[in-house]
Amino acid sequence: MLERNQNTIGTSISFCGNGLHSGLPVKLTLCPAPIDRGIVFRRTDLDGSPEVEAKSKFITNTLRATTLEKGNAKVFTVEHLLSALFALHIDNCIIEMDSPEPPVADGGALTFAQMINDAGIVKQEKNISILTLSTVESVYDGNKFIAALPYDGLRITFTSINNHPLLGTQMKDIIINPESYVKEIAPARTIGFTWELDALRKMSLGKGGTLDNAVVYSETECLSKLKFPDELVRHKILDILGDISLVGPIHAHIISVLGSHKLNAALSGKLQLLK
Ligand SMILES: [Zn+2]
Fold this sequence. Notes:
Layout: E1 3-9, E2 13-18, E3 25-32, E4 39-43, E5 51-53, E6 59-61, E7 67-70, E8 73-76, H1 79-87, E9 93-97, H2 110-119, E10 121-129, E11 131-132, E12 137-141, E13 144-149, E14 154-162, E15 168-175, H3 178-185, E16 190-193, H4 194-202, E17 214-217, H5 231-244, E18 250-257, H6 261-272
């Protein structure tokens, strides 16, 4: 069985901001955790500080963002923070929040990756197994799909086909390691469209979004300053890493065409069964 050492962070580190969808103010603190504790969200604003582990069995909603729920411990839009922890190989960490949603921060995962690097990555004296595949696992939804193929390492290929004149068809293929992640993926922000904003706000979503922490397109132009010409597909890869992190360390080539949090969650569920 393939293994690597477990890791936690060196010290507690905090960041304050507002949630992307709820707009609620939140203090996020990442704390070191012992061997085998896993990634755990702790709601410090609720009686008894209830916890929910970052595991696929606790996913309860995947509309626009991923929600984890256990008892009254509910957290949502957790995929960007989870993506950074996963890509930087943090296996044990208590995530304290005094609100259900982490801060939107930079809109991607760069703030979280910097917090982890600032806190320091500490090797722990026990190994964790890395899931490896011997067959292809896939999930389809009409013309959309996500598949995980056997691969020595972690590679993600995402294709987006969008009829917006400035987006069109984009593909990004990247081998994920901490360095490539911080440079190529972590800065990529969520994409939004002006005509969706009213509908989102009616569903109480997107309240913390701005032209800086999201890439907003109108029908004819991009209202935000892009960090990459293909920021859309890079952010989709960021999201996949966050959603797949719920399975734990994995070696696979993940290929997605028009994938979503829903498909990512379905694939995580299938991969979980292989463990
Ligand atoms: Zn996202």
